[in-house]
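U., I forgot to send this yesterday:
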Amino acid sequence: MLIEKIGVKNPYAWCNHNTTALNFTQSIVQIFQRLDSEYWSRA
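Result:
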């Protein structure tokens, strides 16, 4: 598993991985918000 590879041996790499996942989630949320506002402005 990914956690076993980088999380146990290198906590710093695991922290970086979590930050990447967080940024990815935030960008998806922003995309959905943009689509949502475009949809409502059209309606």
